[in-house]
Amino acid sequence: MEASDPNESAAATCSWKRRGLMSAVEKCIQVTESLLELARISHKNDRDETIEKINDLLNQRETLLPLIKGPFSTEEKSAGKRLIQLNEELNLHLGKMRMHIQRDINELEHKKTTAERYSNPYAAAEQLDGMFYDKRK
User: How many whole angstroms separate alpha carbon 5 and alpha carbon 33?
Assistant: First the structure.
């Protein structure tokens, strides 16, 4: 029996790379990794651009997901497990991004109402002031 060469097994597991072919699972992994990269480095300054890029990548990924069909080879199974891990991490980062956006919206609404109260402090009193109901007939 001959000992298996680790380089040979690595080449066999990544045979799709040698042939220039890529399975839908691997394409999906690449798109998910790009999504993760964008979600990790999102800044407040260019958030709109980042969200547009994320939406584009999510649309690409949405077209790839239906292409993932069995039967799967062993390399596709391991790639699928990696894809699931990446997806969980992506959900975490996108959830954080959503929370930051929601917090910014809430802060903006609070600032708006505070500014309105400051500019017209008696607006609330005008509606209630002067109302009197006589209970006698």
Answer: 30
Q: b/e map of 33-46 (b: 16 or more CB within 10 Å)? A: bbbbebbeebeeee
Residues 74 and 14: beta-carbon distance below 8 Å = no
The encoded tokens of residue 101 equal 């956006």
**pTM of the model as a whole:** 0.69
pLDDT means per 10 residues in the chain (137 residues)? 42 42 83 93 83 94 89 87 95 94 95 89 63 67
- What are the angstrom distances between the C-alpha of 32 and each of 13, 17, 23, 114? 21, 18, 14, 41
